[in-house]
Amino acid sequence: MSTACEELVDPKQIMLDEIIIKYRHENGPLIPILQGAQEVYGYLPAHVLKRISKTTRIPLARIYGVVTFYAQFRLTPVGRNLINVCLGTACHVRGGAKVLETIEKELKIKDGATTEDGRYTLEIVACIGACGLAPVISINNEVHGRLLPESIAGILAKYE
Ligand code: FES
Description:
Blueprint (H helix, E strand, L loop, with lengths): L3 H5 L2 H13 L6 H12 L4 H11 L3 H10 L11 E6 L2 H5 L2 H12 L12 E6 L11 E3 L2 E3 L7 H5 L4
Parallel strand pairs: 1-2
Antiparallel strand pairs: 1-3, 3-4
The site of FE2/S2 (inorganic) cluster has 12 residues, from helix 6.
């Protein structure tokens, strides 16, 4: 039988505290701490940013400034399916913008957003290394290439 104390342990918070301890004595520790925290939580919840602020004594406003400046950081959770639409040169030339427009219309969201039901998150990316298959999207790292706008709905429907 577990004790009340054991039930209160949050393994993610332990990992977060380890990350903070690892970096807080180095110069400019904020970015690696935020990257580590995002790896643990999948995004950067408000309570995590508060804890980082408290333990590093970096003002919360400065932390939010950094988080909102760099596109790599997220303040909201990712949907169950992460769609990356490539707008690198090869994909752009072969109709990537039309593919993006079709996905945006289909899901009623824009770049960086998540559908209300949490099913999809949409992100525009640069080349994902499959230029020969342009235009390309990846969903949960699974690549779909040589896309036509009319094939988008069928592909999206496969991801619950
Ligand atoms: S430009 Fe899209 S995969 Fe390379």
